[in-house]
Every structure is written in C-alpha cells, then in structure tokens.
Structure of Cytochrome c oxidase subunit 2:
Amino acid sequence: MANPSQFGFQDASSPIMEELVEFHDHALMVALAICSLVLYLLSLMLMEKLSSNTVDAQEVELIWTILPAIVLILLALPSLQILYMMDEIDEPDLTLKAIGHQWYWSYEYTDFKDLAFDSYMIPTTELPSGHFRLLEVDHRVVVPMESPIRVIVTAGDVLHSWAVPTLGVKTDAIPGRLNQTSFITTRPGIFYGQCSEICGANHSYMPIVVESTPLTHFESWSSLLSSSS
C-alpha cells in the first residue's frame, strides 16, 4: 500500500515486481551517469576554447557513436528478460478468472465448483473504521501464498484493466477476448489495485483487493464460501 508523499515504488510482493524494481534502479543509474557526463562536457565546453583537433576528431565521433549503442544494449537485455518472464506461465496451482463490468469486478475460481462472486467497492458511508476509502471491497480475492496463480482477464461491456502494482500485474480486460497473466505472492498480506483503463464515469470506483494467505487458510476460506453459495 502506497503512503502519502512516498518516494519510489510500493514494496514488491512478487518475484516479477522485484525484478521490475531492480531494472528501474539499474536504468536510473545509467541515466544519472549519462546526465552527469553530458553536464560535465557542457561545462567544459563553456569554460574552455575548443581547438580544431577537438572539433574534427574522428576518434571522438566514433566513441560517441559506439558508446550509446553499448548503453542501449545494457538496457535492452534485462528488459527483454523481464518481458519473457512476465509472459511465462508454468503449470499454475490456481486459475482465477476476472471479469470487468461497469463498475465492479466478477471473479470465478475455475478449479472449484460454484466458487464465484462479485466484488464491489464499499461506499464511504459504510466503510469500517481503519479501512482505506475508495480501495476496500466487500469481497476480496483470496489466493494461496507462494503458489503460481494464473489470472484470465476479460470484460463484459467496455475496456477495463486488472492492475495490482505491488504484484507487478497489469492486464487489459477486453470484451470478447481472454488475456492472461500470472503472479506469485511471496508474503502474506493485502494488496490493493484499481482499474487502470478509463472505462466510464465511475472508472475510479472499481478497486481490486488481493489477499494472500497460507494454503491452509485458503482451503478453509474456499470451503466456507463454496458451502454458503
């Protein structure tokens, strides 16, 4: 959960998000080094006169042509690795189907019989004390911790987007099309997200809440919910 005036990302709760944060820091340090070098060269050019050898030096032109290419390769390789990791889905332990509606989410646990529910945002007037306004829902998505989860995302009316920043997940929900993503929660907790597509007037009022619990708690929750439905 983000804090007011927070500088940086939320704490990563999945391996993919940890890789994304590390890549962000890596790219930021590369950009800082480039900016420092350019600032140094600009100040040097302003303070000293350039000789004809400096202006027409082919060695300098060769260096400032090859060096940016090397920098781009250093940025591209880890980026491509993360992209392939985000698309990789290996034998998930649980499959969750998320369906976007105006303006709420429906969830189906396809590995269980009759385990499905709608998730609405709790209005501010009915919000319990200590809960987050505009982010809390009446039914949370409960998943087992440290288990590969596959999420199949679609929409029933207009474009939506199922996004949970701390898990590194953001997948568009498109009517008539199934998109899929996956994640693994590395710790127990409650992770908040929102629809990241401008889907209508109440676009900002369809939050996503994922609760990561130990496997035994998840089994008890799923049994209780299946019996009540």
Q: What stands out?
A: The chain has a mean pLDDT of 87. The helical segments are 15-47, 52-55, 58-87, 215-228. The domain at 94-227 is CATH 2.60.40.420 (Immunoglobulin-like).
